[in-house]
Amino acid sequence: MTVKSKHVRIKGIKDGLVFLLDDKCPFEELLGELRYKLEHSHQNILTGPIVHVDIKMGKRSVTDEEKESVLEILRGQGNLLIRSVEVLEAVKSGNGSSLHVMSGILRSGQVLNHKGDLLFLGDVNPGGAITCTGDIFILGALRGMAHAGVEGNEGAVIAASVMAPTQLRIAEIISRPPDEWETRESSMEFAFLSEGVMQIDKIHNIVKLRRDLNVFKGV
């Protein structure tokens, strides 16, 4: 069997591999090429120590079953450890822009940079960091650093299911959280700027904040 198409690209990074999967080809064709590359043309990466793998599926619309079929192929190789799966989705954030969706775990020393708004499904561990030009929404624990509005957008927000960061930053305003972060009420919160001062509120109040901001701007 000869596979001439390049629907699957495997890129080496400092701490693992990135599998870049074409989001326009038929899904079964994609799976076939993935199996072939792992079984024939890329056997050298399947020997040796554990290799961390990040999967990028582009803007393909996939079901949970389809995503699982990709993971099963990779899990079948003994030394590949799935670290994250990224699927871009056309979700809208509270300010009307497209919301980029990613999942995984950010460990100490790892930094995720994104241009735009980000929904991160997973935890940010101490020593890990997320920086975005827009909003940051974390469905998980924020125990590392988060910087929203990195290009000066003071209207950006940072939200997390568990808000226990080492540092929050919106635009140029930095807030080093108090020692009692860990004892705060267990509910999703968000950080925002009010007259240049970092504030924390319950997530359900973000709608009112954005509505009031739009009224203030005359939108």
From TrEMBL:
Presence of keyword Cell division: yes
InterPro entries per UniProt: CAP/MinC_C, MinC, MinC_C_sf, MinC_N_1, Septum_form_inhib_MinC_C
SUPFAM superfamilies, A to Z: Cell-division inhibitor MinC, C-terminal domain
Residue ranges of the TM segments: none
Keyword annotations: Cell cycle, Cell division, Septation
Residues of the Septum formation inhibitor MinC C-terminal domain: 103-197
GO BP annotations, alphabetical order: cell morphogenesis; division septum assembly; regulation of cell septum assembly
Boundaries of every Septum site-determining protein MinC N-terminal domain copy: 8-85
Subunit structure of this chain's protein: Interacts with MinD and FtsZ.
Function field: Cell division inhibitor that blocks the formation of polar Z ring septums. Rapidly oscillates between the poles of the cell to destabilize FtsZ filaments that have formed before they mature into polar Z rings. Prevents FtsZ polymerization.
Family: Belongs to the MinC family.
PANTHER family: SEPTUM SITE-DETERMINING PROTEIN MINC (PTHR34108:SF1)
Protein name: Probable septum site-determining protein MinC
